[in-house]
Amino acid sequence: INSFGLLSKFKSQFLINFYKIELRITMTISVEVRDSNVSKSMMQLKRTLIREGLFKELKKRKFYTKPSVAKRLKREAAEKQRHKDLKRELRAAIKADF
Asked: Which of 31, 37, 82, 84 could form a disulfide with 45 if both were Cys (CB 3.0 to 4.6 A apart)?
């Protein structure tokens, strides 16, 4: 653990401005191109990036979100997840009865 409390396994770079500290974590994602099949490798790379959540993160960071709006969105997402989990449990219970 380094002085900022972050895990040392990440290759981190800190940029310190007057009012903010920006953290950049670099990750290496590589895809092998086999038999000169670039399109298949591109699709594999895209699937990997989606699985890692890169596109969601980019979409989230495109615009500034006020803290109050972020809290509301987080609360709504949690409520949506609770409903999903409840539906899943109900389906499992109904399926177990039959």
From this structure: 31
